[in-house]
Write a structure and sequence with these properties.
CATH topology of the largest domain: Immunoglobulin-like
Helix content: under 10%
Number of domains: 3
Order of helices and strands: EEEEEEEEEEEEEEEEEE
Low-confidence stretches: none
Strand content: over 45%
Number of helices: 0
CATH class of the largest domain: Mainly Beta
Distance between the termini: 108 Å
Structural class: mainly beta
Oligomer: single chain
């Protein structure tokens, strides 16, 4: 049967429990110095010292540059802190499909759905920290309609047409002259007006458009406005 000795521990000069083994936890980083001597049968061993470095948790804070998010948007995400010695991993993978890298302090994500995006940071000492944000993309259905076009055959702005995304379905796109006569109608965004009416070039001036389209959430929108035909 072995004899039990007395373990004399100190930490930065302060005493610790006289146990052979124990656990110690820190809330702050820095260098800590332990010393140990053992007393057995009235004899005390020489003092032994050892220093360890306690790493703090890596900084993890997500920055989202976009304020308003739409479905199917590309989102710019970045960590507020960029430590070259730390690893940055973004999850879940549904927001990072093929072509979207989920590793690095700055990444691009895909707003496939509403949900939580998480950032996991691991520093060079294996210490881990995390942050998360909730995104709630909307059905964004505003179409861009130019306010002028010049059908002069130079290949630049020769057609008055809509600029849409896959989220919108055009149900009617009509153009009227100043007498209320419809000079053009289309039911697809791929077809624009080249300024021709009844096989003749229309006069320069202000024309009026009427637009009806449906968003991916089923909502129907209407838009009216003017366009300048320039010759």
């Amino acid at each position: 049967m072995g004899l039990a000795g007395e373990y004399n521990w100190t930490l930065n000069g302060g005493t610790l429990p006289n146990e052979k083994e124990f656990e110690y936890h820190w809330n702050t980083s820095g260098t800590r110095t332990f010393s140990l001597s053992i007393t057995l049968n009235g004899c005390t061993s020489p003092l032994t010292e050892a220093s360890i470095f306690v790493s703090g948790l890596p900084d993890a804070e997500i920055v989202l540059d976009e304020v308003d998010l739409c479905f199917k948007d590309t989102i710019n995400l970045r960590s507020k802190f960029n430590d070259l010695n730390s690893q940055y991993v973004w999850m879940p993978e549904i927001f990072f499909p093929i072509g979207f890298d989920n590793e690095g302090a700055a990444v691009k994500a895909f707003s496939e759905m509403a949900g939580q995006i998480q950032l996991f940071v691991t520093n060079q000492y294996g210490c881990k920290n995390a942050d998360s944000i909730h995104i709630n993309p909307k059905h964004c259905c505003d179409l861009f309609v130019p306010n002028a076009f010049s059908p002069n055959g130079d290949g630049v702005n020769d057609e008055f047409r809509l600029y849409t995304e896959a989220l919108q379905t055009v149900q009617e796109f009509s153009i009227f002259n100043r007498w209320g006569q419809r000079v053009f109608v289309s039911y697809t965004p791929a077809k624009g007006w080249d300024g021709i009416f009844q096989n003749k070039p229309s006069d320069a001036g202000v024309y009026h458009f009427y637009l009806k389209y449906k968003c991916s959430d089923g909502t129907v929108y209407f838009k009216k406005g003017d366009v300048h035909l320039i010759r």
